[in-house]
Design brief:
It holds the Pfam family SMAP. With 199 residues, the protein is an all-alpha fold. It has two domains: 2-101; 112-180, no CATH class. It is built from seven helices and no strands. It has helices spanning 2-48, 54-73, 88-102, 112-118, 125-135, 151-180, 191-198. α1 (2-48) crosses α2 and α2 packs parallel to α3. It is elongated and about 110 Å long.
C-alpha cells in the first residue's frame, strides 16, 4: 500500500504543477497583452509630442516584438529574461522543440522495432508470454498481440527464427563435443603416443 500511496501523492503533485504552469502561462499572456498596450501608449505619447526616453522606446519595441512572437508562435518569453538579450522567435523554436521532445507518445504510435519485439516468437507460447511480461509489452488477454505485421516485419521475424534455430544447432554441437571428446586436442597426449613412450 505504501507504493500505491506514494504513487498517488506523486500524481497529485504532478497535477498541481501542471495547474500552476497553466496559470503562469495565462499570466504571461496577459502581461504580453499589457506590453502590447504599453507599446500603443508609447506611440500615443510620441504622437502627442511628449518626450519619451530611449529606455521607454526600447521597452516598447521589445514588448511589441514579444507580442508579435506570441501571436505567431504561441510561446511567450518569460519575464525574467532580458528582452534585449533574447531573440523571441529563437526562444519560441527552442520551446517547441523541448515540448516535442518531452511529450509522451500517443497510444497508436509504435515503431517498426517495437512491433518486431511484440511479435517475436520463441516457439513456445509460455516463453512468448514470459518474454513480453519481462519487456513490459502489454498484449491481449490470451497473451497474443492482435496487430499483424507488414511484409518487411514478417521477413525479419523469419530471419530471427532461422537464426535461433542455427544457434540451437551450434550449441548442441559444441555441447556434444565438449562432453564426448574430453582429453583430446592441444595440450593432451593421445593414447597412441603414450604407448610409444613406454617401449
Amino acid at each position: 500500500m505504501d507504493a500505491q500511496e506514494a504513487l498517488a501523492r506523486r500524481l497529485e503533485r504532478a497535477k498541481k504543477l501542471q495547474e500552476q504552469k497553466e496559470k503562469e502561462l495565462l499570466e504571461k499572456r496577459q502581461q504580453e497583452v499589457v506590453g502590447a498596450n504599453h507599446a500603443l501608449n508609447v506611440a500615443a505619447l510620441l504622437a502627442s509630442g511628449t518626450q519619451v526616453t530611449p529606455q521607454i522606446a526600447m521597452a516598447a519595441q521589445m514588448a511589441a516584438l514579444q507580442a508579435r512572437t506570441l501571436a505567431e508562435t504561441g510561446v511567450a518569453v518569460p519575464s525574467y529574461y532580458n528582452p534585449s538579450a533574447v531573440n523571441p522567435s529563437k526562444f519560441a523554436e527552442q520551446e517547441k522543440k523541448r515540448k516535442k521532445l518531452w511529450q509522451g507518445k500517443k497510444d497508436g504510435d509504435k515503431s517498426q522495432t517495437a512491433e518486431l519485439w511484440e511479435n517475436l516468437n520463441f516457439g513456445n507460447k509460455d516463453q512468448n508470454v514470459k518474454f513480453r511480461k519481462l519487456m513490459g509489452i502489454k498484449a491481449d488477454d490470451e497473451g497474443e498481440v492482435s496487430k499483424p505485421l507488414n511484409d518487411e516485419g514478417l521477413k525479419t521475424l523469419q530471419k530471427q527464427e532461422e537464426m535461433f534455430r542455427n544457434l540451437d544447432v551450434q550449441y548442441e554441437m559444441a555441447r556434444s563435443q565438449t562432453h564426448t571428446q574430453r582429453g583430446m586436442g592441444l595440450g593432451f597426449s593421445s593414447a597412441f603416443s603414450r604407448g610409444m613412450d613406454s617401449i
